[in-house]
Amino acid sequence: MSEDTKTPAGLRESATFDRNTMHEIRRAADTGIYDIRGFGAKRKLPHFDDLLFLGASMSRYPLEGYREKCNTSVTLGTRFAKKPIELDIPVTIAGMSFGALSANAKEALGRGASIMGTSTTTGDGGMTPEERGQSKKLVYQYLPSRYGMNPDDLRKADAIEVVLGQGAKPGGGGMLLGQKITDRIAQMRTLPKGVDQRSACRHPDWTGPDDLAIKILELREITDWQVPIYIKVGATRTYYDVKLAVKAGADVIVVDGMQGGTAATQDVFIEHVGIPTLAAIPQAVQALQEMGMHRKVQLIVSGGIRNGADVAKCMALGADAVAIGTAALVALGCNHPKYDDEFKKIGSAAGYYDDYQEGKDPAGISTQDPELSKRLDPVEAGRRLANYLNVLTLEAQTLARACGKNDLRNLEPEDLVALTVESAAMARVPLAGTSWVPGQKF
Amino acid sequence: MKTVNLSEVSIRELNQALHDQKAQCTEETWTVLEPKGQHNIACGLDQTLSVDIHGHAGYYCAGMNQKANVTIHGNAGQGVAENMMSGVVRVKGDASQSAGATAHGGLLVVEGNAGARCGISMKGVDIVVKGDVGHMSCFMGQAGNLVVCGDAGDALGDSLYEVKIYVKGSVKSLGADCIEKEMRSEHLAELTDLLKRAGIDEDPTQFKRYGSARGLYNFKVDNASAY
Predict the structure, then answer these.
(1) What count of Cα atoms within 13 Å lies in the side-chain half-sphere of residue A259?
(2) Element (H, E) at B147
(3) Residues near B73 by beta carbon (within 8 Å), at least 6 away in sequence
(4) What is the band of A7 on the pLDDT scale with cuts at 50, 70, 90?
């Protein structure tokens, strides 16, 4: 066991009132206002690291890692759309707004995704020409605020994502603080420059799943049934939400776990609302299977995806694809150590920076400051993202081949075991070395 | 003039025929019969068409309208003319909740009453209601004008941005950060024009103007009780 050499022996820190907890109490006492920040949940949660693959041996036949093909392509939106979306890899870029992110960052996301043949997604605030121009496959988010929403852009989209919530703040709306509102963003969102732009937590013209079914039909009518319609939910009551989303007519369902990122939300919301991604996937798959819609309505999972193992584990649990947000920003250069001195000047450090709402990001990503934004070269950053997406894909293929699968979507829960009782119960796979799935019969 | 009877033709067929007019306008005047409360009638139009719907329409009639002039000779369901960009939508009867929600432009006229959340999150549309409007109307309204010739329900203009609201009758209550404002000559001129465009004969001097106090534009802890 390693010892804490910084703290003098005999001084014992409270597990309940640790230094971070005391710091937050003092901060609250000083300011009288809750902490708002970006990023996602920082607390330790049951996650994909708690799962392991069972590679092939005597009872399973592996595929040759460097020769035999392992398909990574996926088609989304096969239920109703005339033009389903074809992705070369099952890793998409999650919705992030121009406003929360700089124009260069949005362009870089489009470039990187396009190189790898996958899609990127708009966010609150509408579609920019740069983003549409650099994204060969672009998903248009249809959000409660409807900032910048117009039928011309709707028809330019390759898919439409009706956003009911996100994993970082299920049940909450958004806020783009005034310091990030430039002339262009103000114009796109039809609001005065410099005011805090509140994004509503619920849609203005429907109130429940029966209404949503009619709303989806309206979107299909307006787009002449051409493109897939996704429904995105933050992971909470996932089993019921997925059933209702299928009933409402979704082609694709996006489930975003609580590790998913945000541009600006109360810390208390990020850390205390929602369920881990790991716990949400089996609920979603169960709902789809019970309705006979698994693989017919595709499932995209997001929230804390970091490497190819996470991708493969999501797919083994039944997802058709994953979406990444925070990891994509890190690939672009978010929190990069080369800016550590500048992070320190604004009271943070590389690897810890989460005040996206302030618009002072030294890496030029979560900012609208023209000088800071210039630091991010969209071509180079796009290339970095493409490299990263490539690694995710190669890693996922490596694991799938080891399990004897020639398609990432052939991975299955039977390929997995869990390291902890909690993760076994959530993922509904056996505890490693046993046949015990907590909550299920022996 | 083209006549479409919705007891014989599906909503999909009607909308596709109307959408096809964008590429090549072969028929400008359309009459829709027997709508029977069906949803999504004439949504997503993008051409200078004139569409008369004889009967009641369901949800999202004329949703996201661009350029077209749509008249509903009956009542309209939820979200009539939602997110309209341009053109004119007229409801001869009453409109259900969220009429003109998030609409960016054009003119919505309701000759009867409008339900709750009329003009919610409106972003530039002009809405004229000859009768009353329900609670939470113009919630988070960003731009445009809302004219109410009758009474307004609870929480009018809650969390309002830059919409100008004109009400002739009573207001049951104002929402957070919405206040009565001085009716200056430019507002009278604007209101006169709105009423004229809507074809409604009312005396603009009888109206009061409401708008945002702009106190909640930036989050301040001192305003916590208002949130």
Answers:
(1) 22
(2) strand B143-148
(3) B52, B53, B54, B55, B92, B93
(4) confident
Model pLDDT for residues B63-116, shown as the tens digit of each residue: 999 999 999 999 999 999 999 999 999 999 999 999 999 999 999 999 999 999
Our CA-based measurement puts residue A155 at a distance from the nearest CA of chain B, in whole angstroms, of 10
Look up residue A83 and give its two tokens.
């033009």
Task: Tell me whether residue A59 is in a domain.
Answer: yes
Residue with tokens 């490299």: A387
Q: What's the domain range around A68? A: 46-333+376-427
Three-state secondary-structure class, residue B155: coil
* pLDDT above 80 (res A442): no
- Tell me whether residue A326 is in a domain: yes
Closest listed residue to residue A252, CA positions, set A198, A308, A293: A293
Q: What is the CA radius of gyration of chain B?
A: 18
Residues of A in Cβ contact (< 8 Å) with B12:
221, 225
Does A151 contact B79 at a Cβ distance shorter than 8 Å?
A: no
Cβ–Cβ gap A177/B219 under 8 Å: yes
Whether residue A267 contacts residue A313, with contact meaning beta carbons closer than 8 Å, is answered with no
How far apart are the CA of B148 and the nearest CA of chain A, in angstroms?
20
Q: The domain that contains A81 carries what CATH number?
A: 3.20.20.70
Interface check for A298 against chain B (CB to CB < 8 A): the answer is no
Residues of B in contact with A175 (CB under 8 A): 219
In chain A, the N- to C-terminal Cα span, in Å, equals: 36
pLDDT tier for residue A198 given thresholds of 50, 70 and 90 = confident
**How far is the alpha carbon of A151 from chain B, nearest alpha carbon, in Å?**
6
Pick the closest to residue B41 from B76, B90, B8, B69 (CA basis).
B76
Share the mean pLDDT of chain A: 94
Q: What span, in angstroms and rounded, lies between the C-alpha atoms of B174 and B179?
A: 7
Structural domains counted in chain A = 1
Tally of structural domains, chain B: 1
Residues of A in contact with B43 (CB under 8 A): 218, 221-222
DSSP strand pairing (A252-256 vs A298-302): parallel
CA A174 to chain centre: 16
Where residue B37 falls (left for φ over 0; alpha for ψ -120 to 50; beta otherwise) is left
Measured between beta carbons, the chain A residues lying within 8 angstroms of B143 are 190-191
pLDDT at A2 over 60: no
By residue range, what is the domain housing residue B160?
A: 2-216
pTM of the predicted structure, to 2 decimals: 0.95
